[in-house]
Amino acid sequence: MTTTAASQFTRDDQPAGCMIATAATQCAPTQARQRDLLTTRRTEAEAALVTRLRAGITSGELPAETDTKPRPPSTAPSCAA
Question: Are the beta carbons of 39 and 77 closer than 8 angstroms?
Fold first, then answer.
């Protein structure tokens, strides 16, 4: 399941990431606190994943050429009026 999710969320012909998490950041201005929390959590999760991937490269679990750069989000978080 994880392999399938990773394949689906990283397709070049689709928006990047989880649709629910991405949609949750598109909110009313009154929900800016929620948007900011979700944005922070997503950034922290991406950083943790990059750290783990780099550790896997260092330990030999992953090939040295493994791409560890996070993909940019398909849309920037915003609160629409």
Answer: yes
Angle made by CA atoms 25, 2, 44, in degrees to the nearest 5: 40
- State both tokens at 32: 């800016």
Supply the pTM of this predicted model. 0.58
Strands (E), 2-79: 26-27, 78-79
Residue 58's pLDDT is 96
Task: Give the span between the Cα atoms of 10 and 3, in whole angstroms.
Answer: 11
Are the CB atoms for 42 and 22 separated by under 8 Å? Answer: no
Nearest-angstrom CA–CA distance, 59 and 33: 39
Percent of the chain with pLDDT over 70: 70
Write down the domain spans for the chain.
31-64
**Band of the pLDDT at 28, cuts 50, 70, 90?**
confident
CB 44 within 8 A of CB 53: no
